[in-house]
Amino acid sequence: MKRIGILTSGGDSQGMNAAVRAIARSAMSAGLEAYGINYGFKGLVEGNIFKMNSKELDGIINRGGTILYSARFPEFAQEEVQLQGIEQLKKFGIDALVVIGGDGSYHGAEKLTKHGYNSIGVPGTIDNDIPGTDFTIGFDSAVNVATEALDRINDTATSHQRTFVVEVMGRGAGDIALWAGIAAGADAIVIPERDYDIEAIANKIKENRKNGKDHALIVIAEGVMSAQEFKEKLDQYGDFDSRAVTLAHIQRGGVPTAKDRVLASRLGDYAVRLLLEGKGGLAIGIHDNKLVATDIIDTLENHKHKTDVSLLDLNDRLRF
């Protein structure tokens, strides 16, 4: 093996650049060449590929977004398009590919693996919804951004005796809502992984007001419904002077936390070491603070990410 390709795909997440840096520099330190692929699988098929050097990797470990850019490319689900991508890899003499991204990106790497092309998936998404790993690159940063925003909103809620319903990202997973909600002391957290009762939440807000707490903070995962829709349903049970806020894409940008930078560095280096051992077709991650690798086909087809819903029980015990 002489050349490794690197691409980022799907939604960007803080720490992707740190992962790109780790993969490229780890490859270079082993005497390999690293090739960057711009615009994800779209760039792969179009041949938007270039040789990376050490200098251009300087100063990117602390940058949000991805220097390799990203693009949605649903056409890669088609076999003929996948084969076009493989032809580009052969054209540039790239022996193996490391894909940094979320669920859709992993499925792209899985398709290449099924065609016999050596690919490794590195979990890069704020949603933390990838099977085979406890945490994904960008999750910790997104939770910290969301927590800071919730703290600020809670200040306003207190000043004006209002109820705020705040929608956070996460796609179909409730991890960001859970972690940020607990960290911000939310009165209620609503996630897709567990049934919820709006009337019970409304009654608790009323009870709290009778006991002297005249404001409330509700955190809802986007996979449940929008903040505005939840607010409108909540208002059917009383006048809470409620407001709906959607945090949206601010959660995906900005400086990655130290935890995400270290995680990205560990995972990127691990991917290269596995390839040097002749191993591929893998999804890598971290479990109990130990680096792990699982078969990417089996991981995607037979396993699902499990949100730790016990954290919801924790919040229920601590909120009153």
Automatic annotation (TrEMBL):
Activity regulation: Allosterically activated by ADP and other diphosphonucleosides, and allosterically inhibited by phosphoenolpyruvate.
One Pfam family per UniProt: PFK
Residue positions of the active site: D127
Residues annotated to bind ATP: G11, R72, F73, G102, D103, G104, S105
Protein role: Catalyzes the phosphorylation of D-fructose 6-phosphate to fructose 1,6-bisphosphate by ATP, the first committing step of glycolysis.
Keyword vocabulary terms for this entry: Allosteric enzyme, ATP-binding, Cytoplasm, Glycolysis, Kinase, Magnesium, Metal-binding, Nucleotide-binding, Transferase
Source organism (scientific name): Ligilactobacillus araffinosus DSM 20653
Pathway info: Carbohydrate degradation; glycolysis; D-glyceraldehyde 3-phosphate and glycerone phosphate from D-glucose: step 3/4
One MF term in the entry's GO annotations: monosaccharide binding
HAMAP family: Phosphofructokinase_I_B1
EC number: 2.7.1.11
The name this protein goes by in its record: ATP-dependent 6-phosphofructokinase
